[in-house]
## 1
Amino acid sequence: MDSITKPVLCGFCGKEFDYTVYPMIHIPGDHKLKKKVLNKTLFFPTCPFCKEEIKLKPNCIYRNDSQKEVIIVTDSQDTDFETLLMTGDIAFNDVHSDEDVLAFIGGLYKRRVVRDVDSFREKILLSDNNYDDRIIELMKLSLSGILEKENCEPVYRIFLEETSGNQLEFTAIMGKRAPFEYVSVKAPSIVYTQYRDKYQNRLGKPEEDEYITTDQKWAAKSGLLKDEDAGFVIPL
Ligand SMILES: [Zn+2]
């Protein structure tokens, strides 16, 4: 696996230190790297000077050939990656051969683009646990509705944090501006099953182009929850 060591500027104490990142995580093979993303030891360096934990803005391709999926995290805000993934005209440094490119297009691979490390980790977590990320986005949208009603504050971001046994644990970051409040919400995994049974047949194949950016904006735009009460079937 290729690695890049580069200086990271600590936003807490202002000092600089070297940190190693990996532009590509390729499964099978890079299981250790995947684990490091999941347990937040990759892309979350601790500053050796002030010991604060930093969240990096990484650029990385996660490619899983057994599950046939590609997840790209990029700090670029333009939509070039989405376009490239749709047309197959991709020129990322880590895509080595024409065969790679062909494999990504034509709906053979499920493709996702995300813009921060939390979303990247979440997508990999979902993939590992065989959850449909679109169904999870619908659940998050519904949960946000409840949280906003209860706390009278907007949900800034919401993520699936952990799945263990028969529970899904979400973290919602609430508030209009910093300092944000972190709220942890648990839902039984049967709720996922209920959502899946209700909505999956209204969605196309997960590898279609329209799902490349599957996030909260997508969930809202899908309109699937618009006739539902916020939080329907989600017990808290
Ligand atoms: Zn520091």
## 2
Amino acid sequence: MSTKQTSLESFLRKKKRLSEETEMSSTSKKRVTFNRQYHESYLKYGFVGTGDFHKPKPLCIVCSNQFSNEAMKPSKLLRHLNAKHPGVKDKSLEYFERKKREHEGQKKFMRATTLIKENALRTSYLVANRIAKAKIQFTIGEELILPATKDICRELLGEAAVEKIAHVPLSADTVTRRIEEIAEDIEAQLFERINA
Ligand SMILES: [Zn+2]
């Protein structure tokens, strides 16, 4: 493995770690001793439990609003249902179960979309790095690499693969930005090594 590849890997790892740390700090900042728990019976008020398992938050499946853990109380949940959704307050449990399944389907879809976007972003950095190493025009990403990769995928893997590839940002502007970002990071890594 070349030094450049190692530097890029460490850059991508750093990016991933940073985004994970931001996520963690937002979910587990303060641990309170008492957290309200979700109970299955809350579904009849139109609520599911989301977020941190130890400190779940009630989420209304009618309006998709999420409330704090402190609001996880039958009286508060019922008050929301009666005040905000009088049209469905007398609906059967089956109605809310169906709504819950719809909500879960949406969540799954969102998670899959987020994963595709993350992988596409990573791909964009990897390809930009190759373009920089090859010392060719940055337009090659949008003019040749992307369309050619789409052809290969369409013929060998099918339309689903082509759709995923469409998420990889490779315009000349993007490639320029990626390369600048990678170069800045490599420079910083070099300084760190020199000063170590
Ligand atoms: Zn609501």
